[in-house]
Design a protein that fits this description.
This protein is an alpha/beta fold. 35% of the residues lie in helices and 19% in strands. It contains five helices and six strands, in the order E-H-E-H-E-H-E-H-E-E-H. Strands 3-2-4-1-5-6 form a six-stranded mixed beta sheet, sandwiched between helices. Strand 2, helix 2 and strand 3 form a beta-alpha-beta unit. Helix 1 packs across helix 2 and helix 3 packs across helix 4. The longest helix has 17 residues. It is globular.
Length: 164
């Protein structure tokens, strides 16, 4: 299985007095544009997820929809999972993924949760990444017992450059 971990795009700043509640903060107009370009870069890399899972928070779900459209996946088939909420234990997400019968899975979430998930998958003692907004980390499951290998991490800038 190939696993793509994608951080949501640029969202409305939580300190903005007009900001909606945390779970409802959407992407900004600039965030939508940059996320779309990053998604096109993931298409160039050859990603073809057959299962898509997103945090239920608005900014992550919007990011998943943008990536789905760019990669030709029906956005209505994106699953929402509490396992991708910002404060969740990364082990919960891995347990959910372990039961999937899929060749490629794309998960959309938040920092620091995704950096903790990357560390867990890589067998590190703690986070060693700082996934940028609309950045992607790619892992490959190497055994049925659940060992994973980090294939690459791409910044949103690199993805946008690839998509141009």
């Amino acid at each position: 299985m190939i696993l793509y971990l994608v951080r949501h795009g640029i969202a409305v700043d939580r300190s903005d007095p007009k900001s909606p509640p945390e779970a409802q903060r959407p992407l900004t107009a600039d965030g939508v544009q940059k996320t779309r370009k990053a998604a096109l870069g993931l298409r160039v890399v050859g990603a073809k997820p057959d299962v898509w899972i997103s945090s239920p928070y608005a900014r992550a779900a919007q990011t998943a929809e943008i990536f789905a459209e760019a990669l030709g996946f029906n956005p209505e088939k994106i699953r929402l999972s509490d396992a991708l909420k910002p404060a969740e234990n990364p082990a919960r997400l891995l347990k959910e993924i372990a039961h999937l019968r899929a060749d490629e899975v794309a998960c959309f979430g938040h920092a620091p949760h995704l950096d903790l998930t990357i560390a867990l998958l890589a067998g590190a003692r703690g986070p060693f990444t700082e996934l940028k907004k609309a950045g992607v980390a790619c892992f490959e499951r190497m055994s049925a017992q659940g060992s994973w290998e980090l294939r690459w991490v791409l910044t949103p800038k690199v993805l946008r450059d690839l998509g141009d």
